[in-house]
Structures
1.
Amino acid sequence: MGVVGDESNTNPPSKRSRPRARRGAPSVPPPPAVDAADEALQDPDADEERGAVLVTGICGRLGKLLVRELHRTERVVGIDRRRFPDKPKDVVHYQVDVRRKKTRDIFRTEGVRAVVHLGVLHDPRVGERERHNWNIVAFQKILDYIVEYEVEKLVVLSSAAVYGPHADNPQFLPEDAPLLGAQGFGAIRDLIELDMLAQSFFWRHPQTETVILRPCHILGGVRNAASNYLRLERPLTVLGFDPMMQAIHEKDVVRALEHALRPGAKGIFNLRGAGELPLSRMFRKLGTSPIPIPGALATGMLDRLFRYHLSSFPAPELDHLRYVCMVDDTRAREVLGFTPKYDLDQTIEAVVSPRAWVAAR
Amino acid sequence: MVKPHTDATRPPPVAGSQRPFDLQPEVSPRFSRLIGDRVVRFAEDVLGEDIDAKIARIRTHHNETGHDPFGFDPDTTRYVLAGAALLHRYYFRTEVHGIENVPGDGRLLVIANHSGQVPLDGVMIATALMMDADPPRFPRSMVEKWTAELPFVSVLFPRVGQVVGSPSNARRLLENEESLVVFPEGARGISKTFDKRYQMTPFGLGFMRLALETNTPIVPVAVVGAEEQYPSMGDIKPLAKLLGMPAFPIIPQLFVGMLAPLPTKYRLYFGEPLRFEGDPDDDDAVVEEKVWTVRTAIESMLQRGLEAREGVFF
């Protein structure tokens, strides 16, 4: 959950100041009624009834990418504990913890139309207690506010990791496959619980269109385990294993989020990039040569490295290098109408391009 | 920083279209130069057949990257096929009957009896489908889930087209018009002791439900000769359980240092394709009846084959 500070130069935010842009300090928003009238006066074409899109975890890489796409056509409100230094001018950002009371005020005053929940903490270094509390309590609060303020749409970014890599997985997991991710890796339990919460919310509150997206490994400038792993100069692999892998470009995930925000879209969707390759082929494309280590040795070694803060990968994640965890995206193609735009080469290269950019600077 | 790779300029292929694989080296070039190519050349010289041409005729349903989504790799397969073809022709001297019954294209289930402790019967059926059928049929087979946990095996099996046995995998392959080899007896059949040779164990029903669901013709196959390759005197069940294996057979020849299977003569009988209609979700009893038809077809070919043969090794 970190930020790679390369945004402002690679894709500068829009300089166009829009009449709907909010003015003043974001922490003291003007009363919504006045604001709506004001907007209607200045921008008669805009449907003033349309509420804002609330993005949690907006300061993450995906949040920033999403905002950059959305803010031209939608009113975007962000919540994050982190600062958002290079945010587009027309985006309102609240630097608060979602669990605070302030969140309710945001829902009340901003007229939220849709919530995109990206604020899921995956960092394995954060204590289990805090991480669980952050992920579950925060999400539960958001669900409560969604009901209270009759928000029309909820988009949750889950992950294909909830299915977990297992030897007996079918090659392509459908959306109704059991969520066994925590079987080998306890830290994924938060995400599964979050996914389940969203699922039960889907059934209990049909008036809100709930979309759960489960993308395969997201690659790009994001600082997630998959991208960090592929960025390594000498990555470890498990000797005698070379599973087929899927990967999706971060910008494709953002496009899928936009698809999910369209009215009518609801349900659970697996997301897959264009094609799958053996892990060794991905390394060949990147030009890195991995170090294969026998399985039993690798587990113990990585466990120790992780404990001494020499590696950021917890040992159970090794299963991803052993077994398949690939998804069937038929539903996303047919129901959501989402097809990936980036091919696998571009997706894999997106992992190193920020590094190349930093090095060039 | 990033090495440019050769196929960056190639337009991304459209997923799902059927086209031959471009033979990209998957195994390290050094291995390929030193051993792999020699094996293939040697096999081609000895057999007088063009293995690469057979491989080139394989059509699978590739994904957007031009790669098989199940991990099949034509380059690894040519080495394996070269070795298997030598075994097929010179070690087991396989007699193949009725190969013309195998349809040249379209989805297909190949159902056979299973025996011999080590699934060499599967290898021989697959080799016959590649080397003797015209056009060659590239068979996929459904393997035990635990093979995916074994180092190296978990890499080799997918590379040569093996797929972890799950109904959804099978359905996907059949819908892509591929051919599938299934042993409905599973581990029960292969780990039979020698005194139970050529007595088929109960068939699973999954393959029939699959055939009904996907409207797939079934080619029954009888394998004669595999039972005697590793005669087993018994099965140590607790040890098998401890090691997480389906069986732990006692094979006398291993004690005298003979690791290779006995050079029995294999006889493969391919029957005429059987077609079934009905509800795939029907009661077990109804499906069992259809399974029985397949079983009897294999049984009768098996008996005919056993009567016809004059010796185990000749």
Note: Chain B touches chain A at residues 1-3, 5, 7-8, 12, 15, 26, 63-67, 69-71, 145-146, 148-155, 158, 163-164, 166-169, 172 (CB under 8 Å).
2.
Amino acid sequence: MSYGSIVKVPFGPQHPALKEPEHFLFEIDGEIIVNVKPRIGYNHRGIEKAFERRTYIQNIYLAERICGICSDAHTTCYTQAIEDLLGLDAPPRARYIRVIVAELERIHSHSLWLGIAVHEIGFDTFFMYLWRDREAVMDILELISGNRVHYAMNTIGGVRRDITPEIIPKIIRSLDFLEKRTKYYMKALRSERTVLKRTVDVGVLKPKDAVELCAVGPTLRASGVKNDVRGDDPYAAYDEIPFNIVTDDGCDVFSRMLVRCGEILESINMIRYALDHMPSGMLRVRMPMAVKPGEAVSRVEAPRGELIHYVKSNGSTRPERYKVRSPTLANIPALCRMFIGQHVADIPIILAGIDPCFACMDRLVFIDVKTNKRKSLDFESFSEMVRKQRNFRLA
Amino acid sequence: MAIIAEAIKWLLKHPVTIKYPFEREAPPKGFRGRPVWDMHRCIGCGLCSRICPSGAIEIIGRGQEAKIKHYVDRCLFCGQCSESCPRNAIKLMNDFEHARYNRDVMIYEYKRET
């Protein structure tokens, strides 16, 4: 039923769905969304520019701070790009440790997301239990790396810390606990009416649309498309560890939940295999001081999807250009398609369904309003511009 | 309804949350806390200051007379300084409660005692 008139509803930058700000303009007909226009850039932090001001070693820690949840994915991607430029290869043991930390991070990210998703549909009891059990994986990460969030495990040419034999039994014990709990939650999700009513057939993304709009990660896999960088273009030790790519044919928010639950179970098995088959040997190779001029691209399957880093070196101690394509940016066109035809009340859960991280994604361009031309600035001219215009405001 | 059985089971158990200021859990071995300089080992090369990703370390002077200023409010606790130190003079402590009301008291100074 149509009401004849289209109402425009601004959603955000401060909005009820997530803690991170972003603007969406919804055009609604009655209760049904007919169109949506995203406007990204509110949360821009200028990290790519900051890369050009720091040395290659300092940038490891800056790359880590692009995202608080997929911090290990960003450093893996960064170090791989630089190793590619230098022509280095991480030693086998370091590659296994990278896989273990990456998979632990995937477990923590997915259980965090599941908690957020059930919180968005108003099911806070489930949210509390999920986040309580997530502490088990956070504790393992702290035990391995010395920090709960920013692990700082990767370095150019390997990893910084070893996984010692004393902590392996603790990791195995926590993994057993997590496996038991995840299986229980998967069963609970399938039988819980509150969850089914709010997520089944909500935010549908057809497989054809998902491929056309270049969706990535669990969002794409929940539409039944088997696509995973770990399997398609293996990095670290993924080519030596057997695993299944989890997919689901539901195409809705519920199947995104199931895919992420399935990936947690798959990650647990991968960590067990990696701990058993970890080769001995050194942890890192020495990095030469100078980086040759050149370009490199590196891909990593972050918990949210395919992450791409690009680096351009001019032979100095600092990169000339650095570019990050985070998975959320790739999922935005697919997200806009999911909204069409849905109810206004389902906006938060559909938005949360892609596991967005707006702070990682936001970019901006300078557009001269008079001539309608894009321009790019280097750091010096930008800071000079800011100094000139003391009352500088973003339009 | 699956979650109700779980909720009833946990109703009769102790809360999982640790009541933090009253109950404390020691950080695990290998925790990356505040870096501390052993000035008897330090040769004042300034490598820690140059490598620090956030510019939290300042070195005044060189060699044996060098004075190190560590701005804990800028520190990332990444441990790169301790890793880069050629003399292993920097150790990471276990303390993590660094929040203060004033930034001026968040500076730690190290100098070689004669």
Note: DSSP finds three helices and five strands in chain B.
